[in-house]
Structure formats: C-alpha cells, structure tokens
Write a structure and sequence with these properties.
This protein is mainly alpha-helical and about 110 residues long. The chain has helices at about 1-30, 35-45, 50-75, 85-110.
C-alpha cells in the first residue's frame, strides 16, 4: 500500500512528461520553433516556491490526524480504559507538528 502511494504519483508524472515531450517533438518535426521561455520552463525545476498557505494547510492536516488519534483513544477507552492515555500520547506527536506548522505559517506570512 505504501509502495503504491510512492510509486503511482511518480509514474503518473513520468507519463505526463512523456506526453509533453511527444507533443514538443511533433511540433519541432513540423518545423515550429519553440520560444526560449518554453525551453527554460521545461529545463528548470517547476516546484512552486514555499508559501505560508502550504504550511497552514499541512498544519491543519496534521492537527486533523491528531484529533483522529485522540478520538480513537476516546472511543477505545469505553472498552479498555487504559488505552486512552497512550493514544493521547500518540496524538500529541502529529498535534505538535501541526501546531508548529500553523505557527510557522503565521510567522512567515509577515515576510
């Protein structure tokens, strides 16, 4: 399952690049010239610059994971009361990561 999560996006991205290269090859074979902007866009790394909104979005997702673990601990504690505190401890890890990312988004928003 984890392998599929890692491999499938890479495979789909490689298919997209292959289609783009085929389209460019066909246009070059027909005699069309490529503008320098297109060539530069293809050769450069097209990652968007980091933004505070991306940090905020990731932080909210991590906080959601933490709330999910806490809710799981609360639900399991009806049958096994000793399970609440360990699951709250597990929920603390993504919770603090989420809080740090949310704080980082607010700090970097002013820059």
């Amino acid at each position: 399952m984890i392998t599929a999560i890692v491999i499938v996006p890479r495979y789909l991205k490689s298919l997209e690049r292959q289609r783009l290269q085929d389209t460019l090859r066909a246009s070059i074979e027909k005699g069309a010239e490529l503008p320098p902007e297109v060539v530069q866009a293809l050769t450069s790394d097209a990652k968007p610059p980091p933004s505070p909104y991306r940090d905020l979005r990731a932080g909210i997702i991590w906080l959601g994971v933490a709330v999910g673990f806490a809710a799981l601990g609360f639900a399991v504690s009806f049958e096994e009361p000793d399970a609440l505190y360990p699951l709250l401890g597990v929920a603390a890890f993504p919770g603090f990561i989420g809080l740090a990312l949310v704080a980082l988004s607010f700090i970097s928003r002013g820059k």
